[in-house]
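Input record (one chain):
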Amino acid sequence: MTTHPETITYDKDKNELALIDQRKLPAKLEYAYPKNAAEVADLIKTLAVRGAPAIGIAAAYALAITANSHKNSTTENFVEKLESAYHTLKSSRPTAVNLFYALARIRKLWANANTESPPALAKKITDEALEIHEEDRLMCHNIGINGEPLIPKNATILTHCNAGALATGGSGTALAIIYQAVKVGKNIKVFANETRPLLQGARLTAWELAEAGIAVTVITDATAATLMRDKKIDAVITGADRIAANGDTANKIGTYSIATLAKAHKIPFYIAAPITTFDFDIPTGDQIPIEERDPAEVLLFCGKKISHEKARALNPAFDITPARLITAIITDRGIIKQPSAKSLKPLFDKADNY
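The corresponding structure, as predicted from the sequence alone:
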């Protein structure tokens, strides 16, 4: 398989962040080079960088950029700049919990601003951001290892949106399992839902899989039901942007529909996500905030109107899949079958990074 280029890189000597600009794919592989937290937040809002783990990593590096850019200022100004960056990044997108996890983890470091110098704190913040990135690489690897045994030797997998290397700091979540299955010699084919309205499946997942030499077929979101009826799908695997304490899961809009179809056709439906995607502070999916995006994303296609000028559009970015529809959640720490508040409790107890 082809090795993918790094989605996110940070040069600590130059204090320089580079992100694959996912708005340009698949036509062009280009990088964005944000200079400050505001520019990173804008890249997150406009989906130049997307995927819950990748958003968290990018935000962590944005705080490192801020810290290193102001490490020679007074302690008061140093903290002021970091607090401003923190709030700018925090408001960029509401659903993906990895963003808030990474920001909160790093924010704790400048609580010692009265006892440590700005240069010392800048180093700690940089090291923590690098650690968050490295941890995600390892989590992706472990998700792949843990999930691979669930995949039949000759399997056709359906996935929705993009949960690969582009969405993470490593090989992905859902796609990490597919990559690992191929690595151990399994014959894997993939149907990628196009994922309206922004086509993350058609543009990003298909690009990743094709570049890796894995057979991928793009379908319209509405085609999945027919393929399931015709017994052409063996399993469904998606990623997640936030998972509640009872296993209810937020993922790209349309995931709930696929999970319902999979249940009706007795096809296993798997969620793949690292520990950082769990939000044990909320009991159910009812408490997960759902981002509403610009209606123009639905009413326009390639910049052209595709609906009547008086028509309105509803454009939620995510939906909630109830735990009862999920066969198992595949994590870096193991597999939780039939997820529920009770079955997730051991994972909660081990969530020492929270």
